[in-house]
Amino acid sequence: MAGAVGEARGSGWTWRPVARDPLLARAFHSCTELRGRFYLVGGLLAGGAREPSGETVVFDPAGDQAVRVAARGGPRRSHHDAAPVGGRWLCLVGGWDGSRRLATVTALDTDRGVWEAWTAGSGSCPPAGLSSHTCTRISDRELRVAGREGGTRTQRRYGSIYTLRLDPGARTYCYKEEGCHTVSRSGHCAALLQSPGPHPGHQLLLFGGCNSAEPEVAGHWSHGKIKEEPPVAPHLMEKLSRLVSSGQGSLQGPRGLRHHSCSVVGPFAVLFGGETLTRARDTICNDLYIYDTRKSPPLWFHFPCADPGLKRLGHRTCLWNDQLYLVGGFGEDGRTASPQVCILDLFI
């Protein structure tokens, strides 16, 4: 995979392999950075599998090594989401356990190496069941959950938005359904980005998971409501800025994309891969999309790829140490899970 497999007027990009381990071969898992390590939980080990994995695997990007965590009580989950809390807990929210969709919260206490089933607090109004949803950290005590509830026979025709409040000390959680709804989405992604325009703040945007190409706002916070984090990837931000300057921006993003990855890098949302709903064959993608919020209205930049070996579905991307990592996912056949970890290389 040497060289630029995606190109735009003299610029290019590729995913460069940096590690390979059979423990990492899975899709529809969660992959969360916590204390400089990537925690992979559950997922499907092969296409067509009905039973999700109950493994927890930790990948150390500094040493390019993966190890299985011997934590007691590991949950079997796929199509779930996870968020780091308090620099200590990895909170899993919802997902498929092999027989039903859940809305429970299970947390790995990384200090003690133990999985804990947290308890729903009084007044909690949980969803009917969640899978292929998103769970975004707003603070150490608040997550925002968005997605379609229930199975194919029971799901609503719209997507619900929930605030999920956590109390790590008491090991409890509480769902509150917000008054607004979204388009019915499944397999979408979420990005917490600074609001463009004259009124600073943050907004949570949902991309994909339905036929629409339009992003949708699932929450808005005024200036100062969300703690500002210092830039964690200044060099990658600069390279992304130079890459989009070589491309042609558009007001319309990808239509009908689902089970793709999304990572926020400063003012950019970086989307990769997934499955398109717009064609019947060759549905698994290897395209890179960048959503640039530096100006109003924000612009989309599309960087296609010619290498079918980079097609991915149900994968994850993680940001660490000024690099964007690609972990797992099914490949071009939609059945074989990739054991590789790759880094996004940009050639400007």
UniProtKB/TrEMBL annotation:
<keyword id="KW-0677">Repeat</keyword>
<comment type="subunit">
    <text>Interacts with CCNA1.</text>
</comment>
<keyword id="KW-0880">Kelch repeat</keyword>
<dbReference type="InterPro" id="IPR042941">
    <property type="entry name" value="KLDC9"/>
</dbReference>
<protein>
    <recommendedName>
        <fullName>Kelch domain-containing protein 9</fullName>
    </recommendedName>
</protein>
<dbReference type="InterPro" id="IPR015915">
    <property type="entry name" value="Kelch-typ_b-propeller"/>
</dbReference>
<dbReference type="GO" id="GO:0030332">
    <property type="term" value="F:cyclin binding"/>
</dbReference>
